[in-house]
Input
Amino acid sequence: MEQRRRVSVACTLCRQKRVKCDGAKPRCIRCISEAKSCEYRYEEEKRKPPSKKYVQALHERIRILEEQLAQHQTSYNNASLQTPVSFRPQRTAPPHEETNSGLSKTDQNTNSPINDLVDLVGGLSLGEGDQLRYFGSRSNLSLVQQPLDRKYNPPRQSSSQTDSGIEIDGLSLDTRNALLQIFWEWQNPWQYLVHKKAFMDSLNSGSNDGYCTPLLLYSILALAARYSDRVDVRSDPGDTSTAGDAYVDRAKALLHQEVEAPRVSTVIAAALIALKEMSVDKEPAGWTYIGIAVRMAYNLGLHVDPSKMVQRGFLTTQAAEIRSIAWWGCYLVEKLFTVGIGRPSIILERDVHAPLPSILSEVDFYPWNNDDTLPQTSCSSYSITTFRNTCEMFRMIARPLDDIYAHPTNSPTQKQNLVTEINLILTDFYNKIPSIMRLPSSLSKTPLPPHIYCFHLHYHALSILVHRPFIVSPPSDPFDNLLNQPAFSHLETCTQSAESITLLFRAYAGFYTLRRISISVVDPARTAAIIHLFNMTSNDRIVQEKAKSLFIETAKYIKEMSTAWAWSRRALRALILIAQRWSLDQYLPMIIEIDPPSSQLIQRDSSISTPIHDTQPQIVEGGAPSPGLETDHITGTNFNEIPPSDAGLWEIDWSDPFGLWPFTDPLDNMVGGLWPPEPPDQ
Output
């Protein structure tokens, strides 16, 4: 008799009956025999003991709190006590909410004037195109449940809709299906924006339900084309950088029409267009389009909990799920943008009330597979579980990062307090992620679905960003480490996370290559490379050599991503400039060998002697190169204008090695962070 294997998590039914569960996916044997639904709740796992890193974070948090307590005790008569702020995602109930807020309007007499006047939340009502719109109570429009807008007649679109689905001019059915398959396998599992079943049902049936629209289809195809080597998806068959350009141009034209009366599909399309623009290194356009997506999402009330609307029959369960997926997909893309380019958050946690997407067994427990060109993985996808945990992670970190990297409104001591608190929360969260998302003991032997690697890459990148502003130069005397252990631990944490990022890329490249990795992981790679680069300035030869090896390996991974994502080439150019700034010119030939087209970065005019902070790269209008000058073909930057290296100009200030001063100028801002900041006013 075959021995029953042990599973880490039993399904809900088996746990309720206190019987053994075989852990089969999508349904265990007992649930099949009893014709019951089978659900696994991995978030309830509590068997794993605290990690060493969590214990260290806890000790550091206790140390900071003890120091604060001692300071308050000595200055009690002269200063008021200050309470540290918790950054766990939470919502403070404002006055009247428990009794008279809009959250409970459906349970009370909705015609009561007092209930209407004291409402704080607002609600949903029909707007243009018979779509739900959200109005906050401050506007008073939330008091009206009937449509107020004029009748909207959407403009006719050139793409036709037939019984066999949407037909796109110049696109064969074979190409369309191939790009959709790429999208479902490589893009949507990580940045979960589209409900696959609802979209494909609409596409195949040709129904005009407002979800599978020509705009959304064009947007999906435009981004999926970046993952493809097919020649017929390029505007110029010989130029891989033109993949998807024709599709995105059409999508932009349709978006301009639909923005007058957006739908959920319009929000999704705008977010996908933002990613497509970033893929060709059009950062301003990408940032603008994700802003448009967020604005439209708020307009449609996607951030609001739709459960009451479902109960009242205004929304179906699937429609509510589609709204939830669109909101949280848009949320994740926005957070990846704000972290990647170092800008304040657009979405504020206090405004978010929508539930996370449900775990759909036909998606989460379905085996992840690719297009048969790479080794198959036998594990389930767990894409929604990964997506939910990724969103939770960014909810924990978004506000603290905004505060840490904001202009100096808080003292360094207060910022240090924030760091220890969020480090403890983040470490505890990572220690308790579901077992199905944890890394195997041997990264090189056991493949995981690509999106799980993306989760771990971003966790380590966020860990670096939390600690990096507090890095100080490691002391030359080893005994000094014992006297300054807390300060040195920030560099140690960043170094460990940077090494983990490189190892994760090594594992991913070994199983899948980096041809179809998500564009969002370019930023973790760049973040890790900067830490490796910093460690190359160490006086310790062992640290220096190890960092050099890891840096070159990471830079190669960044280069490998450049076929699909031109954004990675900007990262390489940034690393070259930073290496020059930190007097690491001797390593530039190795980087140039990785990225030959950027070799003009080290071709400099010897007559230039202007201090670096007084000279900026010349940006040629429209990206057109100036006659006779070596110019970057993407950004139009004139690299001949970069000043020569000078030991005095590039000397590192070890009291502030990253040029952050009071944490105001993070290097991840790809423009401002590459030049020394002006000293703060005294």
